[in-house]
From TrEMBL:
Signal peptide: none annotated. The lineage of its organism: Bacteria, Pseudomonadati, Bacteroidota, Cytophagia, Cytophagales. Its EC number is 3.6.3.-. CDD domains: ABC_MJ0796_LolCDE_FtsE. Residues 4-224 form the ABC transporter domain. This is Lipoprotein-releasing system ATP-binding protein. Coiled coil: none annotated. SMART domains: AAA (SM00382). GO terms for cellular component: membrane protein complex. Gene3D superfamilies: P-loop containing nucleotide triphosphate hydrolases.
Amino acid sequence: MNVLSASHINKYFFEPEKFQVLQDVNFEVKKGEFLSIIGKSGCGKSTLLYILSTMDTDYEGLLEVNGQRLTGLPQDTLAAFRNEHLGFVFQFHFLLPEFTVLQNVMLPALKLGKYSNKEIEERAYEKLRLVNMTEHARKQSSKLSGGQQQRVAIARALINDPAIIMGDEPTGNLDKANSGLVFDIFRQISHENGQTIITVTHDPDFANGSDRIIEMSDGRIVRH
Ligand SMILES: Nc1ncnc2c1ncn2[C@@H]1O[C@H](COP(=O)(O)OP(=O)(O)OP(=O)(O)O)[C@@H](O)[C@H]1O
């Protein structure tokens, strides 16, 4: 079953001059697949991920996620869709430094408004267990190491049980050992929970360990 389908995606930038950054990009991603998108700097990976994540709506083509056509939907509908169905892990964790680990992880679920506070706390602990961070739950997030903060960011991305977790260089700021931990968590999420992972990465170990690689060059897919 396809969880994401991108058809004939074209994208242009107009500054400083008109430039086609994505050229007829087509691919599908199956439920539970762990996919890495690779390619030289500037080939359009982040631009593509930004479109797949529904944050950029200024493109040609068609994007479907979870069987729903997302192209053309209004921004507030897309924002609600993202919070419920997509999880994000970036190179920099973007945790709220003054908040505790637990509060950071709970936030997207509080925003969703689907569960009671008690249920949300239980879910947050369940996700923190998955990333082996329960013992740090009551600590202020700024007091953690970079690798620990990234694991908390993954727990936060998982709190609403998203169908797809999107990563933009999730190991880009980590050493080898912490990169390995993040990779293992992603693999577990996809292989055991059936959640789909789509990551842009420059990390060869991470890409080679994933189920499938899409390679881009000059705005096109050249291998998939
Ligand atoms: N807002 C923008 N306006 C104009 N050009 C842009 C804009 N954002 C990105 N670009 C250009 O589009 C191209 C693709 O950028 P993108 O960030 O998608 O590449 P990338 O493959 O993710 O690179 P990296 O691996 O370095 O992150 C680059 O030539 C970049 O300079």
